[in-house]
Design brief:
Elements lengths: L11 E5 L2 E5 L8 E2 L4 E10 L2 E7 L10 E4 L6 H13 L2 E13 L4 E11 L8 E8 L10 H11 L13
Parallel strand pairs: 4-8
Antiparallel strand pairs: 1-2, 2-3, 4-5, 4-6, 5-9, 7-8
């Protein structure tokens, strides 16, 4: 963000609330860009006794992850999660429980993760290019964001998952 969305003045950096933020220098306007994190829902989708991992069309071939999506205005996190599972996988789901809330600082998001029990026939939505069903004991996790939610859920099932090796790390 470079310009004030209220008065179109060029934004400046100033301390507000103990943190440097973008602010409008026009004192009559007073706009502050708080840059609050976006709420995102994430699902460990359990399908036919396995975990569904999906690849976004924009990701490298080796990268798979959980089903995620932005929470829409006016919907509960549970409704948002079931909507995303339907949109991205074509599956009907039932919330199995809240796994937890996780930070994803790199993308300025707060992840609200659920276990979703799903049924039906997988039909990929336009955002996904591939999916796979992985037995619980063969799941590997990643050290950030949704990887931590998958780890925590697997542990409730008595599985201690290994950490995957990430290219370039």
């Amino acid at each position: 963000m470079r310009y004030c969305p209220q008065c179109r003045s060029e934004l400046a950096t100033a301390e507000r609330g103990g943190i440097d933020r973008l602010v409008c220098p026009d004192t009559d306007c007073g706009f502050i860009h708080w840059n609050n994190p976006a709420p995102v829902v994430a699902a460990v989708v359990e399908y036919q006794g396995q975990v569904v991992l999906a690849r976004n069309a924009a990701w490298p071939d080796w990268m798979y992850g959980l089903i995620t999506g932005f929470l829409e205005a006016g919907e509960t996190p549970e409704d948002g999660m079931l909507r995303e599972v339907k949109e991205e996988l074509g599956l009907d789901g039932r919330i199995g429980g809240l796994i937890g809330v996780y930070e994803f600082i790199r993308r300025n998001e707060v992840l609200i993760a659920y276990h979703v029990e799903a049924e039906g026939t997988v039909t990929l939505g336009e955002e996904l290019s591939d999916w796979k069903a992985v037995p619980l004991e063969r799941c590997k996790v990643w050290p950030f964001g949704t990887g931590l939610a998958l780890r925590d859920w697997l542990r409730t099932r008595g599985v201690e998952p290994p950490m995957m090796e990430l290219p370039g790390r």
